[in-house]
Each structure stands twice: as C-alpha cells, then as structure tokens.
C-alpha cells in the first residue's frame, strides 16, 4: 500500500515517496498519477524517437534520449517526466539531483522535450509550456494526435496538431503543423518529417 503524504508535497518528499510501480508527476505540490498510455500513444513516441535518433547520429550530436527522467521546475514544487526528453550528458556534472533522483533542473541538460497529449491536455498546453519556458528548455513539442486540446490552443474546428514551442529572447514562440506540413525544428533543422508522419494521421 502506498503511504499517503500531506499536501502540499515538496519535491524531496515526492522523491522519497516514489513507489516501484506506477507513473507519477508532481504538479504544484500535488502528486498526480499518470494514466496508462494507449498503444497508439506509445507508438507515436517510438516512431519519433526512431527518427530523432537518426538525426542525432547523422549530425553527430551528443544527445541521448531518455523516457524516465524528471524535469524539476525552479520555483513551484513540480516535477514532470516528459514522454521524450533529449539529454545533454555534458552538463550532468552540474546537475545536483541527477545521481540520486534522475532529475534535471537546467536547460543546458535538456535541449528538447515532447509530450504526447492524452486526457490531461490542459497540463501539457498550460502548466508544462509555462514551466518549460521558465526553465529555458529550447524546444518543446506538443503532439496532439487526437486533436483534443482546447480551441484556444489548436483552433476551430479541432484537428490533430503538432505544436512546436521554441525559445526566442526567453519566451516561447509557437508554430503549428498539420497534415502534409513539413516540420520545422530548431534543434533538428534538417529533419525531413511531415506532421502526419508524427501524428500518425492519414
């Protein structure tokens, strides 16, 4: 049985509490259990990881891809585990929480993150975009393959959308891609993928 914790929870309490089974994140001091991902959700992650690895190898970039690493925000008691995270191993020596908690706190360690949207789309579009921007993560993808995000985020009528947030002068600028649109990625400028290849739409 998982021991209940008082609210709000600090990151240190969350880290010590974290059980061996289940997936959880810390959102402003509240422990949130993550839903079991659907098969299509996982296939999108695998497909994108495969394509990003080809770019990393071709361009001889130093990055690694990790799926079970937390990103801790600098102000709020929040820690997210992105669906895809590019890790820059060259900065790990400067990360105080890496060795014991597999947690990153610095933008220099995290050039890219991606979230595949599920039922908790509000967190991906609002909380995480704000917090990743605050950390200074250069590039953040929101892969809304079901087109479930709010109309203020993906337009009306809703449709499957890839939103790429890229940092410019400390603020995120967003570009959106659908269908046959060729994706423009600051981290991978030679990437040859269309939105529908990432979103797995026809």
Fold and architecture overview:
The protein has helices at 11-17, 39-59, 98-101, 121-135, 151-154, 195-199; strands at 24-27, 30-33, 64-66, 70-72, 79-80, 84-87, 103-104, 112-116, 139-144, 161-168, 171-177. With 202 residues, the protein is of the alpha+beta class. It has a single domain (40-199), classed as Alpha-Beta Complex (tt1808, chain A), CATH 3.90.1570. The chain has a six-stranded mixed beta sheet with strand order 3-6-8-9-10-11, sandwiched between helices. A three-stranded mixed beta sheet has the order 5-4-7. Strands 1-2 form a two-stranded antiparallel ribbon. α4 (121-135) links the parallel β8 (112-116) and β9. The mean pLDDT is 93.
Features:
alpha+beta; 202 residues; three-stranded mixed sheet; tt1808, chain A; globular
| Mean pLDDT across residues | 93
Strand numbers in spatial order across the main sheet: 3-6-8-9-10-11
Q: What is the distance, rounded to the nearest whole angstrom, between the alpha carbons of the first and last residues?
A: 44 Å
Beta-strand content bin: 15-25%
The named CATH superfamily? tt1808, chain A
**Helical coverage, percent range:** 25-40%
Major beta sheet summary: 6 strands, mixed
Overall 3D shape = globular
* Name of the CATH class: Alpha Beta
What would the CATH topology be? tt1808, chain A
CATH architecture: Alpha-Beta Complex
Are there runs of 5+ residues with pLDDT below 50, and where? none
């Amino acid at each position: 049985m998982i021991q209940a914790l008082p609210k709000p929870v600090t990151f240190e309490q969350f880290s010590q509490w974290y059980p061996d089974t289940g997936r959880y994140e810390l959102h402003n001091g509240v422990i949130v259990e993550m839903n079991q991902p659907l098969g299509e959700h996982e296939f999108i992650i695998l497909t994108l990881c495969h394509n990003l690895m080809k770019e990393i190898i071709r361009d001889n970039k130093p990055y690694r891809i990790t799926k079970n690493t937390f990103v801790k925000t600098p102000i709020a008691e929040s820690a997210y585990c992105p669906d895809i995270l590019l890790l820059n191993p060259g900065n790990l020596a400067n990360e105080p929480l890496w060795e014991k908690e597999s947690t990153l706190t610095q933008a220099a360690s995290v050039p890219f993150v991606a979230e595949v949207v599920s039922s908790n789309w509000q967190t991906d579009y609002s909380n995480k975009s704000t917090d990743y921007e605050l950390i200074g993560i250069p590039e953040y993808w929101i892969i809304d393959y079901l087109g479930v995000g709010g109309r203020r985020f993906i337009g009306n009528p809703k449709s499957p959308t890839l939103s790429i947030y890229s940092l410019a002068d400390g603020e995120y600028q967003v570009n959106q891609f659908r269908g046959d649109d060729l994706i423009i990625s600051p981290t991978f400028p030679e990437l040859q993928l269309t939105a529908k290849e990432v979103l797995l739409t026809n």
